[in-house]
Structure formats: structure tokens, C-alpha cells
Amino acid sequence: MIRKLLPFAKKYWVYAVLAPLCIICEVILEVNIPRIMANIVDIGIENRDLNYITRMGILMILMAVLSLFFGAIAAHFASIASTGYAKEIRRELFYKIQDFSFANMDRFTTASLITRLTTDVTHAQMTFMMMIRMMIRTPMMLVMATVMAVTLNARLSAIFLAAIPILGLSLFIISKSAYPRFRTMLKKYDRLNAVIQENLIGIRVVKAFVRGDFEYEKFDDIADQVRETQIKAERIVLWNMPIMQFVMYGCMLAVAWFGGNLIIAGDMQSGQLMGFISYISQILISLMMIGMIFVMFVLSRASLTRISEVLEEKIDIEEKENKVTEIKDGSVTFNNVSFSYAGEKGNMVLENINLSIKSGETIGIIGGTGSGKTTLVQLIPRLYDVTGGSVTVGGVDVRNYGLSELRDAVAMVLQKNVLFSGTIRDNLRWGNENATDEEIIEACKIAQAHDFIMSFPDGYNTVLEQGGVNVSGGQRQRLCIARALLKKPKIIILDDSTSAVDTATDSKIRAALRSEDLFSRIYKNHSPEIITTIIIAQRVASVIDADRIIVMDDGRIDAIGTHEELLKNNTIYREVYESQQKGIVEHAGA
Ligand SMILES: Nc1ncnc2c1ncn2[C@@H]1O[C@H](COP(=O)(O)OP(=O)(O)OP(=O)(O)O)[C@@H](O)[C@H]1O
Ligand SMILES: [Mg+2]
After folding, report:
1. Is any atom of ligand 1 closer than 6 Å to the C-beta of 306?
2. What is the pLDDT of residues 202-237, one digit of tens each?
3. What homologous superfamily does CATH list for 2-312?
4. Ligand 1 in contact with 375 (CB < 6 A)?
């Protein structure tokens, strides 16, 4: 897994190599200092040779300064390499997520993707930094200091050589048991992010429903869980340091005891013991570092796994190799289509759908909530793939088209729509970045948005806040329709897109969509037979003048026909119509 994520450092390999090289110089200098110290004591002081002491002293200072210098630039290079590494991973993740289908998104959830892009990548970055700074430094320091200590006095060295296996074993046990706990902790982080995100996105609803207390509770609950899982993981890891220190200070004591005896017996000089103790502390520090690196690795293993899960996720909506790029016309057929959000094993949301829509037709879809209207039309621009059967557009299976060509030809105004921060003009250009100002105005006129846009002091340059919160719901819907029209699609799907628009404006939009004018103004050389309009609505009034109306019920097509036919033959339709009429009559009578 680490091997798979390592290539992201490629761009920064110079720094990733320079850093350890500097570190090697640093370590070589550092391990020689105690030896010089020992010589100053044993040779310089013993012989009262001031000249020797001065020369060695200057050498020692020089070495210390140089080693500091190398250490500092190594750290600098390491941070360049590791921040670059993190940037590359983030970029790769972000790009990958852009290719995710709706189903891929459903599987990961937005909140978890955010944690993966932020917290998990930060863990990877820290590990990478540690790796280039410590992976070489620590073992090298350990080996060199050990060699130095052994050459100084082999018998004394036996003491801590015995301690190393004990430490190794405890590290192994700790990391083994901490890993699953860190994974649980990160899952809780996902949940925490989800709670915060949901709250922030829905903050208006929360306030309107005075659900603040409930939200506090929800937050406190998950925040506590994060804390608890973190404690659980840390509780194991925290044994690391005390065990290290206990073992190593034990060694120190033993060295001081046995070393002291050796000096008294005349088998060792006091300078040697001083140097020896310095080496022991270098070894001690290295071992502690190894402990820290271990903890880091355990934590980041969980994060790295989560990163690779995203990178390795199979995008379930993919283009074929010899894709069709030309969409002939706006005809749509559904051939025995069934669909389930959870794949073949899930429960079917759509079953046995057979439907044929001619190019240029206006189709209305009506049906209770949850009856599968949105699900049905989402299959046309391939936001999801059918579970069984097939959907064709212009006579070709949608799976054979290039995705961008298909989605350019099928403009869907989603039920849950968003605008982005930026000016109104920028937002509209989302539909078609090459749209001229005239085209933008024409599209807005058809969507009945032009008048209200012009009523803003800044007109088309009015800046929208994130999510388009500073326009009304109905205004937002009309902007979304205009944005879709600018794509000059062959099929336009309006999923409940005028629910917040008053009835009069709604009917004006529909009239504009059907007018010959639209084609001469926006579509210039297209003929009117091409554009197919599919309108999903709750109000019968919105679909009443459609060529055909589809009545959906519980994932099936209950009936298809014109308004008159359905009124005569279909109970569901008649009931809906009558209840809505009754409302109007009562309203008028009141
Ligand atoms: N992303 C999803 N994952 C799993 N199930 C889903 C998803 N979206 C919708 N469903 C389920 O599919 C069924 C049909 O939903 P759909 O959105 O198509 O209904 P709809 O007719 O558009 O309703 P509405 O009029 O309320 O928009 C519902 O039972 C819903 O719970
Ligand atoms: Mg819907």
C-alpha cells in the first residue's frame, strides 16, 4: 500500500533524496562528537595539554555547527518533499472523485470523502516527512552509536544489546493491537464530519424548527465517541514511551555501576565512560524515535488504507473504448428496465419499464413521492446505470456514448439543484462556457429569469453566495433552467424544477419551451423536432398540455396517455387531478 502511494512523491524526489543525504552527514558528525569529548578528557586533561584541548575543542564546535546546519536543511528539504507529496495525493483524490458516479458517491458519502482528503492526507504527509527524516537517521544513528560504544568498550555494550529484543517485542505487540483501534477512530471522524456538515448545510432548517438542542446532543454524542475511541487507541500506544524509558534508564544505571567498577579497577578511563554514556543517550533517543515512528505508522496505515480505497474505487460508470460521440436526436426508449440503487441484490426501485419517447415530444411525469420519477429520468443522462434492460437515446444504448457528449445532449435540471458562488453570468456559463451574452439573455427570457435578474442593481453581474442563498427558491429554479437551456440540449429534463415558481410563470416557461421562437433564437439551425422535453411535476397543471403524460406508481408505469385519456381511464390520475382542482375551487370560493 505504501508502495502504491509512494509514486506521488516522484515530482519531489530531488528533495526526498537530498534530505536523507544531509541527514547522513548530520549523523556522521554527531556520533563523532562524544569520541572527541572522551579524547579531550583522557588525553588532553590527563596530559595537561592545553594546545590539544583547544584544537579538539574547536573541532568539536565546528562539527556541532555543521551537524546543526545539515539537520536544518534536511528538515527544510523534508518539508518541501512532504507538503508536495500531500498536494499530489490530494490532487489525485480530488480528480478521482470528479469521475465518481452518483453510485460511487452514495457508497463513500461526502463526509467521509472530506475526512479522507483532509485528515487522512495530513497523516500521510506526516508519515512521509517522518519517513525521510527519521527512517534513515534513526537506524543509522542506532547502528553507528552502537558500533562506537562497542569499540569504546565491548563488555559494557553487552548490557544494552540485551535490552533491544525486549523493546522490539513490546513495539510489535503495541502496533498490532493499536491498528484496529485507529481505524475505528477514523470511522468516528467520518461520522463527526457528517454531523457537522449536515448541520451546517441545513442550519436554516435547524433554526426554523428550533432543533438546536437536538443538534447539540447529536454533536456531543459523536464528539464523545471520537474522544473515547481516540483514548482507546492512545491508551495502548502510550505504553510505548514508559517501556522505552524504563528499559533504557535501567541500562544507564547498569552502565554507570559496571563502568564505575571498571574505572576503579583501572580497566577503563573516565573520559571513555563519559563518551560511552553519550552514546547510550544517542541510542536511547534513537529507540524512542523508533517508537514514535511506529505509532505514526500504525496511525497512518489506517489513513493510507482509506486513501487507497478511494483511489482504487472502481468507477461504475465508464465510457466504452469506441464510444459514439454523435447523438442523432432526442428520442428515448426504455427496454424492460429495472433498477435498484444497491445493485442486483437490492430491492428494485423500478421494474419492467417499457417506454418509447419520440424526438420532439413533450412528456409529463406524475406520481406520488417515492414512486421512482427521479430514478427513472436519472437513467437517461446515465447518472446511474440500469440494473437490467437498457435505455437508448437517439437509438443508441446510453452506455455506448461518450459521457460528456451524452450529458451535453441531455440537460437535466436536478430536483435538488445548486448554484455556485460567483456572478449570475458565471453560473449560467456553467451550462456552456462559450455562450454569448445574447444567448444567455435569450435562455433567461425563456426560463422567465431575465426580468428578475434585471431588477437587481447589478443585473447579470449580481454575485451569488455559496449555494445561491441570496436568491429566492423560485428564482434559483429559473436560473437552473436557463443554465440547462444554454447547453442547447436535445433532451431537457425538468425534475420538479418549477415547484417553487408560481403557476402563471410556470405556464409561461412551458409555453416558451414549446414555442418555435426558442428554436430560432437559441438553437439557430436546429429544427424543432429535435428537442424532447420531460417534465416531472406534482401539479397536474404543469403537465396538462404535454403530448403524453406518464403516471408512475410504486416503481411501475401505471398508465400513459393524454390528459383527456387519463382523466377518463386512470383512477390515480383522476384522483390527483380532482383533489388539486378541488383545492383551486375551494380557494376561489373562499
Ligand atoms: N440515492 C439513493 N439511494 C438509495 N435509495 C434511493 C436513492 N434515491 C432514491 N432512493 C429510493 O428510491 C425510491 C424512488 O425515489 P425517487 O427519488 O425516484 O422518487 P420520486 O418519485 O422522484 O419522489 P419525489 O416526488 O419525492 O421526488 C424511493 O423509495 C427512495 O427511497
Ligand atoms: Mg424526485
Report:
1. no
2. 787 777 777 778 888 889 999 999 999 999 988 888
3. ABC transporter type 1, transmembrane domain (1.20.1560.10)
4. yes
